[in-house]
């Protein structure tokens, strides 16, 4: 099993974010940050190697300035599959892709949710469709024009339409007072026994200002995406409240044209920046805890 994590600047034409190598399968998480001062739009396309088709899965997704957007479900790939992204403005959007690769499973094929069955669509192996209340799994590649109920060689019945059940008894009223809903801070710290609302998923991920000091100690519970303006050459100490495997994104800006070069505690490992940050050259870091270490990758952003 191999682990890959890297940021990629998205261009205004189709930019390859990831292609699954031969004899491997992969799964991962992809988020996109807008590091510019204005809103930008994102288009996402998926290339399915089994059908040689490219499908647009997200079109015209608006991402506000200095905010981020996560793909709504973790993508997965088989050999030859690929994902592309396109931005409305060059250097505005940066994809943060965390990918885990492993050898192909010889005996199992994952479900590929494909919505309602359409007679004019070609389906690959593992495509899961719905029709008249039942679900069917495609057994073959290039599956076109085969009506699922009448084509057992091409389609496997996964679940048949059930009969309506009896009405259940009314349950007790739930406690939905405002005190039980998670705040932005509780979202970032993964507070227990809190209800999550859709708006907090985005607002909790908004950029949080990290206070500057000669020594900066990052608190993992205080931000998801943090931004610090450097007025000197700080040292980043070992962070607190680490959540193993839970990533954080840190944007470092300089306060003027003088390069501000950060130093890092020995718990930070990997692609540590050697360049400094200025008002027009920023450093975008991805931080992922692994045991007592923090795995680092970074890109230099031209903000001129």
Q: Overall pLDDT, averaged? A: 88
Secondary-structure element pattern, one letter each: EEEEEEEEEEEEEHHEEEEEEEEE
Q: Estimate what percentage of residues fall within beta strands.
A: 35-45%
Q: Strand order, biggest sheet?
A: 14-16-18-21-22-20
> What quaternary form is this?
single chain
Low confidence ranges: none
Principal-axes geometry comes out as globular
Helix content: under 10%
| Distance between the ends | 40 Å
Largest sheet: 6 strands, mixed
Tally of helical segments: 2
Quickly count the domains: 3
How would you characterize this protein structure?
The protein is mainly beta and 304 residues long. It folds into 3 domains: 2-103, Nucleoplasmin core domain (Jelly Rolls); 122-159, no CATH class; 183-302, no CATH class. Helix content is 4%, strand content 43%. It contains 2 helices and 22 strands. It has helices at 184-188, 198-203, and strands at 2-9, 15-19, 24-34, 40-48, 53-63, 68-70, 76-77, 82-87, 93-103, 112-116, 127-131, 134-138, 155-159, 207-209, 215-216, 225-230, 235-236, 248-254, 263-264, 268-270, 281-290, 293-302. The protein has a 6-stranded mixed sheet, with no helix packed on it. The longest helix has 6 residues, at 198-203. The radius of gyration is 23 Å and the shape is globular. The two termini are 40 Å apart. The relative contact order is 0.13. The mean pLDDT is 88.
């Amino acid at each position: 099993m191999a682990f890959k994590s890297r940021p990629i600047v998205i261009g205004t034409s189709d930019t390859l974010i990831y292609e699954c190598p031969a004899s491997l399968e992969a799964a991962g998480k992809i988020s996109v940050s807008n590091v510019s001062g204005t809103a930008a739009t994102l288009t996402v396309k998926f290339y399915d190697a089994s059908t040689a088709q490219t499908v647009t899965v997200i079109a015209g997704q608006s991402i506000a300035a200095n905010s981020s957007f996560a793909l709504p479900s973790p993508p997965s790939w088989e050999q030859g599959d690929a994902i592309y992204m396109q931005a409305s403005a060059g250097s505005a959007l940066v994809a943060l892709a965390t990918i885990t690769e492993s050898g192909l499973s010889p005996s199992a094929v994952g479900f590929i949710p494909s919505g309602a069955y359409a007679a004019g669509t070609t389906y690959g192996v593992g495509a899961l469709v719905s029709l008249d209340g039942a679900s069917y799994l495609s057994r073959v590649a290039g599956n076109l024009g085969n009506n699922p109920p009448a084509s057992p060689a091409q389609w496997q019945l996964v679940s048949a339409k059930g009969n309506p059940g009896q009405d259940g008894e009314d349950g007790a009223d739930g406690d939905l007072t405002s005190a039980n809903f998670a705040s932005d801070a509780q979202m970032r710290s993964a507070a227990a026994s809190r209800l999550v609302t859709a708006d907090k998923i985005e607002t909790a991920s908004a950029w949080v200002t990290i206070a500057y000091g000669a020594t900066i100690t990052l608190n993992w519970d205080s931000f998801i995406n943090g931004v610090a303006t450097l007025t000197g050459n700080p040292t980043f100490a070992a962070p607190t409240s680490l959540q193993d495997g839970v990533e954080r994104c840190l944007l470092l800006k300089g306060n003027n044209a003088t390069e501000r070069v950060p130093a890092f505690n020995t718990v930070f490992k990997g692609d540590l920046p050697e360049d400094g940050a200025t008002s027009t050259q920023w450093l975008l870091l991805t931080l992922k805890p692994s045991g007592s270490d923090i795995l680092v990758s970074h890109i230099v952003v031209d903000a001129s």
